[in-house]
């Protein structure tokens, strides 16, 4: 196969898109508020991609992502990703994120420590923010140190990490407010 292809497909959170080339999946786009906005973003990111019928390996990725976004089980570990142009450190972050089990989370510092780059918390955060393989590389499972899940990825459309985690049954901290930063809330009293 030469060139890049893409397709738009239905999921439990809206119409997503996937882009592929000869070496594997190049990118995943979660839904924008309107499908036309999803298509516009695809064109900006992958202007040479044409709408095509997905090959078998991409169809497996679509089926797996669709199942996960309905709250079901799917193993996306064997989906081939085209990492051309992605920095080596980011590739290591993505490999680690792919190994985080469904319904679990890790923090940026935990990922950095696991990669033996404990001073690289900001680099982990940047890699996660630039993840082009949403859901296949479940960057929504990597959170800030306080387990806050309000961020939306560049490829995440209008969907927050919190929503993706709730679909998986995980319970991250709901949101970080100015009060949380300036005046941390004490845990509720325990009753005997």
How is this structure best described in words?
With 192 residues, the protein is an alpha/beta fold. The chain folds into 2 domains: 4-68, Double Stranded RNA Binding Domain; 88-168, Arc Repressor Mutant, subunit A. Helices cover 33% and strands 15% of the residues. It has 7 helices and 6 strands. The strands form 2 sheets. A 4-stranded mixed sheet has the order 3-2-1-4, with helices on both faces. Strands 5-6 form a two-stranded parallel ribbon. α3 packs across α5 (121-129). The protein is globular and about 40 Å long. The N and C termini lie far apart (66 Å). The model is unreliable at 174-192 (pLDDT under 50).
What tags apply to this protein structure?
alpha/beta; 192 residues; 2 domains; disordered C terminus; 15% strand
Short description:
The chain has helices at 35-45, 56-68, 88-98, 108-114, 121-129, 161-168, 178-182, and strands at residues 4-11, 14-21, 24-29, 49-51, 106-107, 142-143. It is an alpha/beta fold and 192 residues long.
Number of helices: 7
Query: What portion of residues belong to β-strands?
Result: 15-25%
What is the number of independent domains? 2
- The main sheet orders its strands as 3-2-1-4
Q: Secondary-structure element order, as H and E?
A: EEEHEHHEHHEHH
Please identify, by name, the CATH architecture of the largest domain. Answer: Orthogonal Bundle
Mean pLDDT: 83
**Highest-level CATH class of the largest domain:** Mainly Alpha
Q: Unreliable runs, pLDDT <50, ≥5 residues? A: 174-192
């Amino acid at each position: 196969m030469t060139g890049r292809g893409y397709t738009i497909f239905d999921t439990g959170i809206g119409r997503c898109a996937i882009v592929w080339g000869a070496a594997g999946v190049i990118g995943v786009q979660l839904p924008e508020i309107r499908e036309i906005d999803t298509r516009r973003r695809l064109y900006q990111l992958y202007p040479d991609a044409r709408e095509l019928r997905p090959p078998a390996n991409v169809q497996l990725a679509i089926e797996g992502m669709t199942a996960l976004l309905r709250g079901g089980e799917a193993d996306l570990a064997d989906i081939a990703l085209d990492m051309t142009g992605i920095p080596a450190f980011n590739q290591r972050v993505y490999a680690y994120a792919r190994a985080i089990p469904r319904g679990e989370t890790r923090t940026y510092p935990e990922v950095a420590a696991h990669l033996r780059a404990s001073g690289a918390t900001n680099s982990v955060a940047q890699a996660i923010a630039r993840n082009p393989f949403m859901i296949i590389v479940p960057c929504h499972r990597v959170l800030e140190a306080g387990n806050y899940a309000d961020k939306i990825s560049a490829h995440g459309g209008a969907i927050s990490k919190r929503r993706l985690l709730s679909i998986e049954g995980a319970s991250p901290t709901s949101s970080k407010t100015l009060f949380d930063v300036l005046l941390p809330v004490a845990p509720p009293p325990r009753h005997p």
